[in-house]
Design goal:
Elements (H helix, E strand, L loop, with lengths): L1 E5 L2 E5 L5 E4 L3 H7 L3 E5 L2 E4 L9
Length: 55
């Protein structure tokens, strides 16, 4: 799972391929889910899963 940002919205890219639009910012998600690390300014990735669901 990973996130992408677009101004004040975020897209949550799920492992099953679905994409969910959220009105939360990437900063908000970073504070809620500390296991995510920003690989680029606008794309935080879950470092515990490597971004692809593998542990």
């Amino acid at each position: 799972m990973y996130l992408t940002g677009d101004v004040n919205y975020s897209y949550v890219h799920l492992l099953n391929g679905h994409v969910v639009l959220s009105s939360r910012t990437l900063k908000w998600f970073a504070q809620q889910w500390p296991s995510f690390v920003r690989v680029l300014k606008h794309i935080p990735v879950d470092q515990q899963r490597g971004g692809d669901g593998q542990q």
